[in-house]
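Researcher: I've been going back and forth with a colleague about how Transcriptional regulator might be arranged in three dimensions. Neither of us has a model we trust, so I'd like an independent prediction. The organism is Ktedonospora formicarum, in case that matters for your notes. Sequence below.
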Amino acid sequence: MRERVKRRAGLADFLQNRRARLQPEQFELPAFQRRRTRGLRREELAQLVGVGVSWYTWLEQGRDIQVSDQVLERLASILQLNKEERLHLFHLAQSSLPAIARLDILKQRPVAAAQAILDGFIYPVRLFDERLNIVGWNEIANRIFGDYPSRPIRERNAPWFLFMHPSSRSFHVNWEHDARRCLASLHARYDRYPDDRWLNELITELQQDSPEFRAWWPEHEIILDCGSFFEVNHPQVGRLTFHQTLFPMPEQPELQMVVYTPLAQEDTPTKLKALMTEVRQ
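Model: Here is an independent structure prediction for Transcriptional regulator. You can compare it with whatever you and your colleague have in mind.
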């Protein structure tokens, strides 16, 4: 029950945040009255979606009410949600899975079977769990991102490394872009597993110790896919550029494999080949 309540609270915050980003002029609504807060009013959004004001107010307050697919589709359209945000809305509003129990089971599942897949890639590849811990990698990824076997477990968590590790800002060429995307991915997972103690402790630590994390977390940005341009400063070969592509693992969709395809910029293929030659020696 507490799990469902916290998920509804996440839904409430998400809806309030996205409503505040819209203006009445976007929908040709009259703006003749002075507004105490930014964005559309609840009654305006309810009118646009085609639902009662009281019903929508209950939804945005996190009350446990039933929401149809049709209403969620209209709501996503009016709120101008992208594909990832729309999927996130459906997860928050309709999921009946015992998420915390599921995550506790998933964290115990072995990743040894996935290692053979990782080792079969010629490009760098890393394996992430639902908490954004890096739980698998191939040798070339180990050479690029650091010596994972020697790292403490906490440093293998992607959000922790980005916001807390002293080398992250020099390693990530576009640190703010990468950090914001990582935070948005973490927020999506927190909304799905709001009762997970490990995630709550991580978020509390980051809010206490990272000014950027503390400032950006309330924005409630959501990212489910990591496909994007990615650029790092390698201490040995210099700048490397990649395109990140995410793949769910066969039979273990809770694990996500990210493949880093080298791009021509910065002579990355040649530099990567040199690193790979060293790995094989």
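Researcher: What would you highlight for our discussion?
Model: I'd start with this: The domain at 2-96 is CATH 1.10.260.40 (434 Repressor (Amino-terminal Domain)). After that, consider the following. The first helix runs from residue 2 to 19.
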